């Protein structure tokens, strides 16, 4: 069981805000519940709404260490769980005195010393508070999900040569996904689920204000509304929160204190990264040139 | 008042009935979660349930509707809506009939209040106001039940738009970006108000006639089971957003399948080179990268009126596929066939592509009613080379040829030439072969799948890959 990191949903919200992650009530409650029930938290949503940030914020707010497993196609046990250090094993065999029994050498080279721990095993073996971030789980192959199921339901790993390693202290697990592939029902069943959408205008304004010191509240408000309008357009890549923040910084750096057509036209490249998106936005917002 | 356990089981049962797959384990998780939060904080309760039983964003709307019914925010008129019971909300004239809303000073006062709330974006205030408004206008004296139409017609929030825009855009140029942004903001708030009123009306009805019955009327099927043909505009939008992940999944499934035996030929030189580090023992073998496999896809899509909702959807699917595959050729037909690939160039804008497609593509030969036989003939004459042994052929249509020629031999030869051929039919299976439908005659040549909703489409994609 994880130790109580948060006392209540409100406490979770406060502590996250303390590390500059502004969580709404739903996020705060869900984070609190994941901790209270000791279940992995699956966070889905479009790119750039702060899924990975949430894991980092939980780690920062609770003083836990963040261990990150980045998923990709072709990720396998050797990269996610553990691996034996072949080269070192080979050296050990070669360096072994000639009169040593093979059985002895064999037992020796499959010991702790030759084990390379990868993120999942590392997270389970740590005795200090840990946040395990399994990032972009949808990018990994289906087989990896099977492995995750095993690790996440019992929080233990079986290494044939060494035996079963059980968690000393359950890590707080965050799994993120862009929903490029539907994760299996079995995995979803074991997790608490949080869908992060684009934030409500008020919350996004507060995020901008927190991240970009020196910006006027009114300008931030107008900026956030404009980004919201852009997200409504049918574009390929809707602006993320990070891009809203970048945009605010850009305006500040350029010394623009009003967001009119000219200002938007000059800086649109900060939020929209496709030519077709820019053209569409220019047309829909009535920007000239 | 029923006990909390009964509430819980009833709620979970109703979620399942509405199509959410809530397992027993998840139901138990929900109980544990609910025990961990403060029960008096309704939004915490909602979040606790949502985190444990809702695992897909498409299910969220259904969940919220049912949650509001099972755990209502208020009972009766609710606290805070202290209404003078003797005073009707509408002014009546001498003959006892209500004065038209536009002339009724009381209604106008309420409209002022609503305008202020919309302007300030005060959500809690809006919620209180919606409760009050439904209590006042949701039921006219003769009516038995509650309706949101009464509230919306009395207060007509849409007509407040001009005034709202006026008050934020003072001194600014009209018609520009500022107005668009403001218009969107207010449109969202007005929609929010309508949603609140609808929720409040459902709550009132549920109080009168029981929660279960109301839930059955109020809940639309979840998006993935929604019939393409019966989708509303807003639902079509939502469906559209679902298409892209499906296309991505289809693409990745095709690639994944190809990757069976992930490694290519052994790279002897690199393997030996690497073995030097381990004293000549080849611990890691190196392989040449595989040639990337490019599955080719040819989509042939019925674009006639009888399947227009479906056609719209399949064109979107085509568009999404076009972005995922390097080689997709798309053809549309009504009673003639034209290639539409060019409208779907990567990076093109989907809406304008659809408009151009409707205006420019040469789909109509004589009647403008679907004629599968002629369409296939034209396809075979003009684009014979599109279908090769490397092609997956996808035909989308209801196989209703208005009793015309079917060109079965051509379809047979196309299906034989292609690597795979599939037919998606948007009609319910029960209606196949009725009237002018030639479903089973085509189905003998090309395996035909019923595809009326996202679930069926997703199932097909799993099968295809």
TrEMBL record, chain A:
Which SUPFAM superfamilies does the entry mention?
A: P-loop containing nucleoside triphosphate hydrolases
Annotated AAA+ ATPase domain ranges read 37-202
- Molecular function GO labels: ATP binding; ATP hydrolysis activity
User: Could you tell me the superkingdom of the organism this chain comes from?
Assistant: Bacteria
Q: TM spans, by residue? A: none
- List the InterPro entries hit by this protein, alphabetically: AAA+_ATPase (IPR003593), ATPase_dyneun-rel_AAA (IPR011704), CbbQ/NirQ/NorQ/GpvN (IPR050764), P-loop_NTPase (IPR027417)
Looking up SMART domains in the UniProt record yields: AAA (SM00382)
What protein is this chain from? MoxR-like ATPase
Q: Which organism is it from?
A: Actinomadura coerulea
UniProtKB/TrEMBL annotation, chain B:
Renumbered residue ranges of the record's region Disordered: 80-100
Q: List the biased-composition ranges (Basic and acidic residues).
A: 84-97
* InterPro entries in the cross-refs: UCP010256, Uncharacterised_CoxE
- In Swiss-Prot or TrEMBL terms, this protein is called Uncharacterized protein with von Willebrand factor type A (VWA) domain
């Amino acid at each position: 069981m994880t130790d109580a990191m948060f006392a209540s949903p409100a406490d979770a919200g406060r502590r996250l805000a303390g590390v500059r992650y502004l969580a709404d009530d739903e996020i705060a409650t869900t984070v609190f519940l994941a901790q209270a029930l000791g279940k992995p938290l699956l966070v889905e949503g479009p790119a750039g709404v702060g899924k990975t940030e949430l894991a980092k914020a939980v780690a920062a707010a609770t003083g836990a260490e963040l261990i990150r497993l980045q998923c990709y196609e072709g990720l396998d046990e050797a990269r996610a769980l553990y691996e034996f250090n072949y080269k070192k094993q080979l050296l050990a065999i070669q360096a072994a005195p000639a009169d040593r029994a093979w059985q002895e050498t064999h037992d020796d080279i499959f010991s702790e010393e030759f084990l390379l721990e990868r993120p999942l095993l590392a997270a389970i073996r740590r005795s200090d508070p840990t946040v395990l971030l399994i990032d972009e789980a949808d990018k990994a192959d289906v087989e990896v999900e099977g492995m995750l199921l095993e690790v996440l339901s019992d929080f233990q790993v079986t290494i044939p040569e060494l035996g079963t390693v059980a968690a000393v202290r359950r890590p707080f697990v965050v799994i993120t996904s862009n929903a490029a592939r539907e994760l299996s029902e079995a995995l979803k069943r074991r997790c608490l689920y949080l869908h992060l959408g684009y934030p409500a205008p008020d919350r996004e304004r507060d995020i901008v204000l927190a991240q970009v010191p020196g910006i006027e509240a009114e300008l931030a408000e107008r900026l956030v509304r404009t980004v919201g309008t852009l997200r409504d357009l049918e574009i390929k890549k809707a602006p993320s929160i990070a891009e809203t923040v970048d945009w605010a910084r850009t305006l500040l750096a350029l010394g623009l204190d009003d967001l009119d057509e000219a200002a938007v036209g000059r800086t649109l490249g900060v939020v929209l990264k496709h030519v077709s998106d820019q053209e569409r936005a220019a047309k829909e917002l009535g920007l000239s040139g | 008042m029923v006990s909390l356990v009964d509430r819980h089981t009833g709620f979970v049962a109703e979620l399942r009935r509405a199509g959410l797959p809530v397992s027993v384990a998840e139901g138990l998780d929900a109980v544990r979660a609910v025990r961990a939060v403060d029960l008096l904080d309704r939004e915490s309760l909602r979040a606790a349930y949502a985190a444990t039983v809702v695992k897909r964003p498409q299910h969220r709307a259904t969940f919220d509707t049912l949650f509001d019914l099972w755990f209502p925010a208020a009972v009766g008129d609710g606290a805070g809506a202290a209404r003078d019971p003797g005073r009707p909300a509408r002014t009546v004239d001498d003959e006892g009939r209500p004065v038209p809303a536009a002339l009724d000073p009381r209604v106008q006062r309420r409209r002022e209040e609503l305008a202020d709330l919309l302007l300030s974006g005060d959500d809690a205030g809006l919620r209180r106001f919606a409760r009050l408004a439904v209590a006042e206008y949701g039921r006219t004296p003769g009516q038995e039940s509650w309706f949101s139409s009464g509230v919306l017609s009395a207060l007509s929030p849409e007509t407040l738009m001009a005034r709202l825009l006026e008050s934020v855009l003072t001194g600014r140029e009209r018609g520009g970006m500022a107005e668009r942004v403001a218009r969107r903001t207010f449109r969202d708030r007005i929609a929010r108000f309508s949603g609140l009123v609808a929720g409040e009306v459902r709550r009132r009805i549920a109080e009168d006639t029981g929660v279960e019955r109301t839930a059955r009327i109020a809940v639309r099927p979840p998006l993935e089971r929604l019939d393409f043909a019966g989708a509303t505009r807003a639902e079509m939008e939502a469906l559209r957003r679902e298409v892209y992940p499906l296309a991505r999944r289809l693409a990745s499934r095709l690639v994944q399948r190809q990757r069976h035996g992930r490694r290519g030929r052994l790279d002897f030189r690199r393997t030996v080179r690497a073995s030097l580090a381990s004293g000549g023992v080849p611990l890691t073998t190196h392989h040449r990268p595989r040639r990337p496999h490019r599955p080719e896809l040819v989509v042939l899509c019925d674009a006639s009126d009888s399947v227009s909702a479906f056609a719209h959807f399949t064109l979107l699917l085509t568009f999404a596929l076009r972005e995922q595959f390097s080689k997709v050729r798309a053809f549309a037909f009504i009673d003639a066939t034209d290639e539409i690939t060019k409208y779907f160039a990567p990076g093109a804008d989907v809406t304008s592509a659809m408009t151009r497609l409707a205006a420019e593509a040469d789909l109509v030969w004589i009647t403008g009613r679907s004629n599968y036989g002629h369409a296939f003939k034209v396809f075979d004459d003009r684009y014979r080379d599109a279908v090769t042994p490397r092609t997956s052929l996808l035909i989308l249509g209801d196989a209703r040829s208005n009793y015309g020629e079917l060109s079965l031999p051509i379809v047979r030869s196309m299906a034989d030439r292609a690597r795979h051929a599939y037919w998606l039919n948007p009609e319910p299976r029960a209606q196949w072969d009725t009237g002018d439908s030639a479903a089973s005659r085509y189905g003998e040549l090309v395996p035909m799948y019923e595809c009326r909703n996202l679930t069926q489409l997703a199932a097909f994609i799993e099968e295809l890959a």
